[in-house]
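Exercise 3.2. Students should predict the tertiary structure of the chain below and write it as structure tokens, then compare their answer with the key that follows.

Predict this chain's 3D structure.
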Amino acid sequence: MAKAFLIDTTKCIGCRACQIACKRWNELPAEKTTFTGSYQTMEDTTADTFTLIKFKEVSNGSPLQWLFRKKQCMQCSDPACIKVCPTQAIIKHKDGFKIRDAEKCVGCGMCVSACPFGVPKKDEKAMKVRDCVFCGNRVVNNLTPSCAKTCPPGALSFGEREEIIASARERVASLKKKFPKAYLYGETELGGLGVMTIITESPAVYDLPENPKVAEHFQALDDFYRLVGIKNETRDAIVKLVARWSDEHGVKRNPTA
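Answer key:
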């Protein structure tokens, strides 16, 4: 049965303990940041920051509100990143989360462009793409993802998707008395996401697409792969083209090798 992750924005206090837990578990380096007038750590996720608490200041004729949302990979049920990857560097685990193989990744950036949520980021020096992989190495050992394990106010929940949805629906129903727009984002979007978010305003307020879609040209690329049977030799040819382009433009594809 697929696993799922619930983010309850009404419980989030913006402490960012999840960001620290993610960096510690994944051994990600700290990054230099610049104050831009917001308490948000940085503008967006990066190849070294897999999750980020987004700070939104909202005032619709009422006192100023701070709305927090945890941005990370949404774990699509039918991931566009997997569809377009020419090297099969991304696969889906039976529990519903994706796994990245750094050795196979050539840094072509196809997954970066295809993601409807703008999550994956490319490390230009290592020529690798990285993002949240659901703490797969913890989940397969019956451990909770590090961010959910750490969250002080209990805004993050993890478990079987059906159970997560059931509890989330109850939570949304209770919130509607105070927040009429309360909604469970991700239950049905893109066929159902592995990471769902309880929000109290429209998705756009949280920088979420109202109706997320995979761009038609990326769907066409997936259709092409299927048309040719997604044969390894075809993918290898695409990889060689990417490698040749990198060589011609002086890009070192794997500087750590």
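Discussion points: The beta strands are 3-8, 52-58, 65-71, 90-92, 98-100, 121-123, 128-130, 156-160, 183-185, 195-199. Residues 71 and 211 are 17 Å apart (CA to CA).
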